[in-house]
Amino acid sequence: MPGWKHIVSLMLALLPLVAHSQTLRKDAEIGVLLGGMNYIGDLNSQSVLGRVNMAGAAIFRYDFHSRWAVQFGLAYGHVEGGNPDVIEKRNLSFRSHIIEGTLTLQFNFVPYQRGSYAQRFTPYMFAGIGVFGFSPKAQYNGNWYELQPLCTEGQGLTQYSERKPYNLIQLCVPFGLGLKCRIGKYFTVGAEYGFRKTWTDYLDDVSTTYVDADLLTANTEAMAATLADRSGEYEAGHTYSAGTQRGDDSLNDWYAFFGLSITVKLNVFDALRKHQKCDAY
């Protein structure tokens, strides 16, 4: 995904500025957030609770005010779903790895003073903008198949001109709540739960209606028809006719990312260098 090359290039370009800025090192932190990721969409009945998978992120946070901070995160995880009770005969399932970059603004409910032992704990809320990459896959006979190129709902076919192939890189709006607490002079621990609003209904490759299996086979490949309608695996001989509801296109898919974090202030490295000089002396 070419977009991530630009993100990494930007981060590398900023490193010299961070390294040579005393003020930034004093008020900035780097760390990790480890936890889970799950999705809300057509294959889990639009439930907030779903299958949770491991996820993690590298984070950079700058506390520019006792009430405000800005945070950049680069996260990786995966989501999955399938066989909701409401339409179990569909027998559809998917898995998708997600890579996201987010920029969020945090508001501290309690003044959070850098280096202050009296004001070192606060709940906060956050919101911002992000970009994420995904690629839904389905497993069949022990093999995993990428679903987007198969156009399982007729995307790109002349008979379905209104259905365009969906992009695998999308924007999202991250928002949520968290807690953070300063431990000692340099470290901060926290917990965070955030949702990602997206503008795609194809995180799970399910959105609209079934299309004719012969049409899919003629224009793509036989595996497209096989993975578009898997109800025959649930009930022998069963198929859905073209036009039957496959998903709910009135609601876009969402996903959530949550976990525990630990960060360290950048000026800890200055303190370590001073300590080494003192020992040498």
**Residue share in helices?**
10-25%
| Average pLDDT score | 85
In the sheet with the most strands, the strands line up as 1-2-3-4-5-8-9-10
Number of strands: 10
Roughly how many Å is the radius of gyration?
Answer: 23 Å
CA distance, first residue to last residue? 51 Å
- Structural class, please? alpha+beta
Strand-residue proportion: 35-45%
Unreliable stretches, pLDDT < 50, 5 or more residues?
Answer: 277-281
| Main sheet summary | 8 strands, antiparallel, barrel
How many H/I helical runs?
A: 6
- H-E string: HHEEEEEEEEEHHHEH
| Dominant shape | elongated
Describe the overall structure:
The structure is a single chain. The protein is α+β, with helices and mostly antiparallel strands and 281 residues long. It has helices spanning 2-19, 22-27, 213-219, 222-228, 231-234, 268-280, and strands at 28-40, 53-62, 68-82, 93-108, 121-133, 137-140, 143-146, 169-183, 187-198, 254-265. The strands form 2 sheets. The chain has an 8-stranded antiparallel barrel with strand order 1-2-3-4-5-8-9-10. It has a two-stranded antiparallel ribbon with strand order 6-7. Helix 3 (213-219) runs antiparallel to helix 4. The longest helix is centred in the first third of the chain and has 18 residues, at 2-19.
